[in-house]
Amino acid sequence: MFIKQAASLKGELSIPGDKSISHRSVMFGAISNGLTEAANFLNSADCLSTISCFRKLGIEIDMKEIKPGRTTVKIHGKGLHGLRQPSSVLDVGNSGTTARLLSGILAGQPFSTTLTGDASIQKRPMGRIIEPLREMGADIKGAGGGGYAPLTIQKSALHGIHYHTKTASAQVKSCILLAGLYADSATRVTEPALSRNHTELMLGSFGAQLEAEDKTVTIQPGPDLTGQKIEVPGDISSAAYFIAAALITPNSELLIQNVGINPTRDGILRAAYAMNADIAKLNVHEASGEPVCDLLVRSSSLTGTAINGSLIPTLIDEIPVLAVMAAYANGTTVISDAAELKVKESNRIDTVVSNLKAMGADITATDDGMVIHGGKPLHHAVIDPHMDHRIAMSFAVAALCAQGGAEIRDEQCVTISYPDFYKDLTGCVQ
Ligand code: S3P
Fold first, then answer.
1. From ligand 1's centre to the CA of 317, what distance in Å?
2. Per residue in 341-393, pLDDT tens?
């Protein structure tokens, strides 16, 4: 798809539902008693993978498009012990969140299952969940030397543990906590830095007994969970493309409505403010226990910054678009402590650096991030997103200010998290 250079962006748009919260609505609803209703559910390929896995596990799930762009999903939960053995392999598609969280639930079931996914999933590290699940007593085997999908999980008794994760990962933390629901005593997870806390917030509202203190969460095994009504906030990771687009494109003003600003997810805003961004938070309110607001974003003269440490987990998925902002900023941006980028849907250090270089940016890859000397004018290039949705969307944003725009190959990969992305983006271009 060709994205042309834009003179300005104007208008308003409402951001589709949060991917992390949509996945969790289905998973937690499935193991609760009664009905869970998730409004503003993200109808994207990743979340559909979660729905399809839980349907195979015997859960009835209805989806209804209430109006264009707004889907409600009803999950008819069967309780902690109500899943049934699927008759075929569970396919998580491209979704790491489905693979890792679902494995935690499957470890506690009295039947065996095999879980796999697409070519990208089969290359993503699963040792990080296999190790703690085995420590809990799970019988779980991986392929490719043991650390990769397909994963086979057999019936086994689980014990509570205290696990210290090596990297801040909400997927790993959530996997262990979910297995903890089926353990014989309390399970505790301590992270090196706090990752997104949707599991803690949501499981608590479904009735799980959890305590979160600083970087440690403790969960007690299984009280019965009860289905909930959830209003899924807009996904700040999807909003990030519009925030960046309005900041870098001259004469722009965008009102981005319904953006979740959970402090474990809002690093993009903190980094943008450090880069001199003009972003106002309006109409701050709460939806299903999560803070939400509208963002009024105006073109800004951005400056370089340092992005590292405990900020990283709060903006891990936004680093590709932050790198684009940094390429258009004056001065140097240094992104470090972000080696996790190498094991996302693509190796995002490589895919960001190679594509920004192709557009003429001064950028160097490092072991755990990248260094960007901003301010060089960017030009047309053919972008290869390596089938990574966030790379395709980040470079569609980069194209808006590049001489001659840019061509995005395999542009349809955005359906993983934001099927209407190009329609929404071109809708703002003046
Ligand atoms: C997610 C956690 C993050 C993030 C992913 C979604 C989640 O992964 O990159 O897109 O929903 O828990 P890690 O926590 O493993 O970094």
1. 8
2. 999 999 999 999 999 999 999 999 999 999 999 999 999 999 999 999 999 99
- The whole-model pTM stands at 0.98
H runs (alpha helix) in 31-143: 45-56, 96-106, 127-135
SS3 116: strand
CA angle 67, 45, 130 (to 5 degrees): 135
The residues assigned a catalytic role are: 317
Percentage helix, strand, coil for the chain under 3-state DSSP, each rounded to 5: 35, 30, 35
Q: What CA–CA distance (Å, rounded) separates 394 from 386?
A: 13
Q: Give the Å distance between the CA of 301 and the centre of ligand 1.
A: 31
Judged by DSSP in three states, 331 sits in: strand
Whose C-alpha lies nearest to ligand 1, atom 5? 97
Q: Of ligand 1's atoms, which has the minimum distance to the CA of residue 24?
A: 11
Q: Which two tokens stand for residue 139?
A: 């019988």
What is the helix (H) or strand (E) element at residue 354, kind and residue range? helix 348-358
Q: Give the H or E element holding residue 76.
A: strand 70-78
